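Project outcomes to date are best conveyed with an example. Our students and postdoctoral researchers have been running inverse folding experiments weekly, and each run begins with a structure described purely in tokens. The record below, which covers 437 residues, was selected by the lab manager from last quarter's runs and is presented without edits.
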């Protein structure tokens, strides 16, 4: 059968979906310079493929231009076409970044961090997902048997990730029914977000090739566990020297890292709509689900919004190389670029405002009465997507981090998503997100 090799250039949009166009590989040189045409209203395609209200209508044109540093090739060695992909940036026709290009927004956030502190960010995305094509036995959480049952999937996934240039770390059968976790090595922040996008696409591709289906829905069922995305972050100097750890700092955090974490804690309720952007996200963000429900920094606390992670180092240098904190109020419905951009903007604001390192909790905040919570500066995070969107709208500081009409467009997008679900019962709601992600 005659075939012509194709190349796909993609963007991760507001819905966290990887969308784009393919072009013949023979046209590579021109496409690397000129890109492919893109339409502004595409940003309002929700995860359910409904188009939300749009200020763009049928007007205007954009260019989706591949970034050569993101080139990914995977040959599964089964006779199928080689997977050849670039991630791109969306530009206006005058060569300026488009206001709703999620990757460009992250670049702006990282530049702001460097401008206010001289520091850069290292990040890693820890993903949970579920396979839907088979009913796996109960009793296999974290088990050798659970791994063995899915060893072919795990080995193929690790090989595909490595072929794509990612550095696999761990793979395990997670706690939930048919749930798994895959982690990869930390990277400079922009590359970390690129790799989070690639990991999701590769995971779903491997599952499909093995006759299964992987879903990154925030939750498959109301009584089940959620699928989170834990975002690990650490700061470094421009030469790569670690800048997060200070043995004399509060909780071991350097002054800059303490202020960065304080910025996230201060603004987490206003950025939650970007890191937990689906209706189902708020079924997961409840006490005792090992996610997050309050605006707290926790010391090795898996229910804190931001957790200081343990290290295995025995001396200051090895501790410093491992020291990081983990944001736990994110899930796979979020574009990795938008989620990380929101965190970086918040952290940079904390550094700019010289916020003091927060107190770290080591307790169940859900047991405290509202007066005690308020006295200690804790608030319950939004409990619905609509509440989260309102908090985003109400914060002039947070809205000011984002370009042009982005905040209004984002809200319209999410209103379109909610409208699609308006007449659906709980069963249909969960099923819709399972299919979409």
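After processing, the design step wrote out the following sequence:
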């Amino acid at each position: 059968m005659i075939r012509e090799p194709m190349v796909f250039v993609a963007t991760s949009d507001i819905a966290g979906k990887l969308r784009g166009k393919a072009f013949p590989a023979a046209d590579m040189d021109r496409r690397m310079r000129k890109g492919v045409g893109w339409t502004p209203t595409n940003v309002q395609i929700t995860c359910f493929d409904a188009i939300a209200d749009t200020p763009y209508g049928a007007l205007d044109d954009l260019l989706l231009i591949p970034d050569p540093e993101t080139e990914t090739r995977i040959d599964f060695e089964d006779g199928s076409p080689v997977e050849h992909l670039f991630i791109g940036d969306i530009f206006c026709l005058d060569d300026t970044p488009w206001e709703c290009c999620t990757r460009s927004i992250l670049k702006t956030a990282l530049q702001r961090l460097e401008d206010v502190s001289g520091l850069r960010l290292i990040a890693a995305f820890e993903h949970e997902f579920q396979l839907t094509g088979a009913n796996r036995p109960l009793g296999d959480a974290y088990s050798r048997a659970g791994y063995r049952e899915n060893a072919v999937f795990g080995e193929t996934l690790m090989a595909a990730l490595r072929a794509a240039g990612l550095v696999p770390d761990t793979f395990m059968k997670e706690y939930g029914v048919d749930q798994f976790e895959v982690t990869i090595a930390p990277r400079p922040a922009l590359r970390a977000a690129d790799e989070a996008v690639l990991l999701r696409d590769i995971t779903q591709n491997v599952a499909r090739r093995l006759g299964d289906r992987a879903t990154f829905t925030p939750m498959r069922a109301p009584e089940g566990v959620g699928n989170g995305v834990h975002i690990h972050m650490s700061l470094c100097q421009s030469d790569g020297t670690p800048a997060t750890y200070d043995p004399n700092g509060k909780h071991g955090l350097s002054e800059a890292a303490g202020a960065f974490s304080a910025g996230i804690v201060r603004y987490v309720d206003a950025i939650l709509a970007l890191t937990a952007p689906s209706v189902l996200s708020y079924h997961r963000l409840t006490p005792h689900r090992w996610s997050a429900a309050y605006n707290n920094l926790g010391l090795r606390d898996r229910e804190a919004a931001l957790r200081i992670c343990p290290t295995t180092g025995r001396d200051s240098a090895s501790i410093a190389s491992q020291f990081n904190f983990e944001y736990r109020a994110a899930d796979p419905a979020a574009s990795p670029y938008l989620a990380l951009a929101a965190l970086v903007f918040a952290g940079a604001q904390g550094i700019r405002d010289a916020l003091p390192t927060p107190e770290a909790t080591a307790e169940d905040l859900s047991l405290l009465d509202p007066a005690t919570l308020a006295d200690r500066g804790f608030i319950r995070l939004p409990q619905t997507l609509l509440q989260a969107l309102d908090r985003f709208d109400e914060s002039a500081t947070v809205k000011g981090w984002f370009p042009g009409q982005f905040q209004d467009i984002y809200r319209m997008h999410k209103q379109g998503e909610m409208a699609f679900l308006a007449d659906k019962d709980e069963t249909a709601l969960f099923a819709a997100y399972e299919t979409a992600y």
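The CA atoms of residues 236 and 243 lie 5 Å apart. The chain has 14 helices and 16 strands. The training component of this project remains on track.
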